[in-house]
Amino acid sequence: MAPQTSWRNVQDAEKITAETLNVWPLDEHNARLLDNVAPAGWQNPTPAAEYDLVAIGAGSGGLVSAKQAARRGAKSALVEMHLAGGDCLNVGCVPSKALIRSARAIKDFRRAEEFGVRVGGPVAPDFSAIMRRMRELRAKIAPADSYEGTVAAGAHMFQGRAAFTGPHSLRVDGPDGAVDLTFKKAVIATGGKPVTPPTYQGVPHLTNETLYNLTHLPPRMVVIGGGPIGLEMAQCFAVFGAQVTVLVRGDKILPKEDSDAARLVHDALVADGLDVVVRTSVREARVTGRTTTDTEGRGAFQEVALTCVGPDGAEREVLCDALLVAAGRAPNVRGLGLEAAGVDYDERAGVRTDDLLRTSNQDIFAVGDVAHKFQFTHMSGEMAKMAVENALFGGQWRLSSLVVPWCTYTMPEVAHVGLYEHELDAKGEAYDSYMSSLEHNDRAILDGEAEGFVKITCKKGTDEILGATAVASHAGDLVAELTLAIQEGVPAGRLARVIHPYPTVGEGTMQAALGFIRATWKKM
């Protein structure tokens, strides 16, 4: 079942990988990536007579489902038609965080004199080197999600497109022909895909699926959308040297986030040179016919003109060399034969499940972006654990029991868990919020990163934690403690008495929790 050859040795490989796998350039790093996640010459195994569990889609949800089932003694199989590792490894979490680290390094060098360090001249980002580093590190991580890794865990690995042919059967159309699989249980983990509104479909544009193939920096970039994906990359490309405009239909960026947090991120983006335009829509997008290059005369970008309409009806034209559309996502439900399996779904909302992750076919489960609103890698993996337990071992693990944290990796980061203040307002529930600004956190001051806060929201008159938000350079590392507190019912009063090492940004959590004690303690 091992691949017969590396992609570097396949005839017309560059053309094939670009057209069928949407990955380029085919340098040594991308070849190594593909050898792990879409190996050339892979030979599908002879199917078992019946599988205990089959997972469709080799992103986080499918990988965990198939591997964990096999490790627990089940006969399992995994089917993937594109790239193992899913969006996270290939076009999401991993490549984006590599770029963010490069952007952070650039920002640090530009501030070096604040810390008594002379760098000997202006900082010069090398975009080609930045992208090469990303490809190298992505390939280094890829073995964890590889075909061989799935086989080593004890599962069968099938390459090809899967479609249900009945309530307990599916067909895999692979490169070496079609095979039929029979199963007792199945997990749908096909993920999601970026949505491109009709306005942009007729012009050259990027999504997260193609952005990381760039090798030259576009001089001017427009980002459509004010959500996490668009903002993270908008900030990076601005730091790399592009002129970046972010167009947002609503009143603010990060509309689901805490207003104080969104305001801080907005200010940080503007400080990094981005033009953030809210309450605007794009009436038309067209190709001007002009081409541009990067600052070194390399690459060839087709100029795109966007006609934007503001809240007062006034129009403005925005020109760009790269258009990144980050305007939402849709579940991958087409072509799966869900009707044949008796699985209910909606084209926009995805596969319908109950609290145990079962679909309308009680022997088929669905996890991750294809079925649920929590579209995070860590959530897909957690749901997969639930699906295996419930499908194979009679478990009653419930989705509603989970406490789900998330993080937007802008600079600074925004992390959250639990309920927002605006959600409590909508429910008419009274609350108290306690905030600790990093302006008073000694470690944040010493690090020169004092823009941020930790906010803890409690049920009115009590220290029962309902939600929490952190804004900091590494807010994602702060939210785990707050998640544990909510999950295990640790009240703010007890959290405030947890000793935190000094000096750390983590003390911000303790200081926010101390807000409850200060509001209620006895006084002389």
Write the layout of secondary structure elements.
Layout: H1 13-21, H2 28-37, E1 51-56, H3 60-71, E2 76-80, H4 86-91, H5 93-110, H6 127-141, H7 147-152, E3 156-159, E4 161-166, E5 169-174, E6 177-188, E7 192-194, E8 220-224, H8 228-240, E9 243-247, H9 259-271, E10 275-277, E11 281-292, E12 301-309, E13 315-320, E14 322-325, E15 329-331, H10 338-341, E16 345-346, E17 350-351, E18 364-366, H11 377-392, E19 405-408, E20 413-418, H12 421-427, E21 431-437, H13 442-447, E22 453-459, E23 465-472, H14 475-487, H15 492-495, H16 507-520
Helix pairs in contact: 2-6, 3-11, 5-6, 5-8
Nutshell version of this structure?
This protein has 524 residues and is α/β, with parallel strands linked by helices. It contains 16 helices and 23 strands.
Give a verbal description of the structure.
The chain is an alpha/beta fold and about 525 residues long. It is built from 16 helices and 23 strands. It has helices spanning about 15-20, 30-35, 60-70, 85-90, 95-110, 125-140, 145-150, 230-240, 260-270, 340, 375-390, 420-425, 440-445, 475-485, 490-495, 505-520, and strands at about 50-55, 75-80, 155-160, 160-165, 170-175, 175-190, 190-195, 220-225, 245, 275, 280-290, 300-310, 315-320, 320-325, 330, 345, 350, 365, 405-410, 415-420, 430-435, 455-460, 465-470. The strands form six sheets. Strands 1, 2, 3, 4, 5, 6 and 18 form a seven-stranded mixed sheet that branches. Strands 19-20-23-22-21 form a five-stranded antiparallel sheet, with helices on both faces. A hairpin with a 2-residue loop joins strand 5 (about 170-175) and strand 6 (about 175-190). Helix 2 packs parallel to helix 6, helix 3 (about 60-70) runs parallel beside helix 11 and helix 5 (about 95-110) crosses helix 6. The longest helix has 18 residues, at about 95-110. The protein is globular and about 75 Å long. The chain starts with 12 loop residues before the first helix and ends with a helix. The mean pLDDT is about 95.
